[in-house]
Amino acid sequence: AQSVTQPDIHITVSEGASLELRCNYSYGATPYLFWYVQSPGQGLQLLLKYFSGDTLVQGIKGFEAEFKRSQSSFNLRKPSVHWSDAAEYFCAVKNTNAGKSTFGDGTTLTVKP
Amino acid sequence: EAEVAQSPRYKITEKSQAVAFWCDPISGHATLYWYRQILGQGPELLVQFQDESVVDDSQLPKDRFSAERLKGVDSTLKIQPAELGDSAMYLCASSLDSGSYNEQFFGPGTRLTVL
Q1: Mean pLDDT of the residues in chain A
Q2: Taking a C-beta distance cutoff of 8 angstroms, is the pair A21, A63 a contact?
Q3: Contact predicate B100/A51, CB 8 Å
Q4: Measured between CB atoms, which of B42, B45, B109 is closest to A100?
Q5: Through-space distance between the first and last CA atoms of chain A, rounded to whole angstroms
Q6: CA dist A38 → B63, B106, B115 (Å)
Q7: Nearest to B73 by CA among B1, B2, B4
Q8: Cα separation of B60 and B56, whole Å?
Q9: Rounded distance, CA B26 to CA B1, Å?
Q10: What does residue A55 show for φ and ψ, rounded to 5 degrees?
């Protein structure tokens, strides 16, 4: 069965610093991978997705993620964090085009002024 | 901008009572999803509709949960009777179709507290 692990429950960074959120997945073939952001009391918003091709994908709000098959990872990065980026971030995997998504347990990002 | 609507936003109920949540997807979206998100965890799919048909309800506790999407548009998720462990955020999402190329758009959720 597919699974997603987000090793960091909570991360704190200073505004303007770089950010990397880790995501590891378990699935035999090439998965469909996603990153979502959830602000307090809100639903999830898609940041970016990877299906195939270039392993570095660009998303909204200045985020990017890199797919590394050898490490079964899909880490999310941002070069300079803004206070408005404080939220919870979820990595998700789908095993087929129409299969259901499995989400990690999320990483809460706090941004220090 | 089109959004997924959910109501109510918050619901407090006592155990053994019945509760119902409503979702109105983005117009034209054929696929509708109900997720349960327990505090500190990621969303877990409860049921997926394609138009009015259920395509996946493998994680839906069918002894107490039911979901319908009678006309293939809006949907209702019901719990009867509610239990303490049902306290969670219930999220609805919709997409044009079930393919992964189609983004899922999430509603704001219904926060359920069972006392």
Answers
A1: 92
A2: no
A3: yes
A4: B45
A5: 41
A6: 31, 10, 26
A7: B4
A8: 9
A9: 10
A10: -80, -10
Q: Which amino acid is at A39?
A: S
* Cα pseudo-dihedral A106, A62, A49, A12, rounded to 10: -10
pLDDT in tens, chain B (115 residues): 789 999 999 999 999 999 999 999 999 999 999 999 999 899 999 999 999 999 999 999 999 999 999 888 999 999 999 999 999 999 999 999 877 677 889 999 999 999 9
Contact flag B41-A46 (C-beta cutoff 8 Å): no
Q: Tell me the pLDDT tens digit for each residue of A16-71.
A: 999 999 999 987 677 889 999 999 878 899 999 998 888 999 999 999 999 999 99
- Asked if residues A78 and A109 have their Cβ atoms less than 8 Å apart, the reply is no
Contact A43 B44 (CB under 8 A): no
Nearest CA in chain B to A102: B44
Q: What would the two tokens of residue A17 be?
A: 């610093």
Rounded alpha-carbon distances, angstroms, from residue B64 to A23, B12, B81: 34, 17, 6
Contact B33, B48 (CB under 8 A): yes
Task: Pick left, alpha or beta for residue B12 (phi over 0 → left; psi -120 to 50 → alpha; otherwise beta).
Answer: beta
B110-114 vs B88-95, strand pairing mode: antiparallel
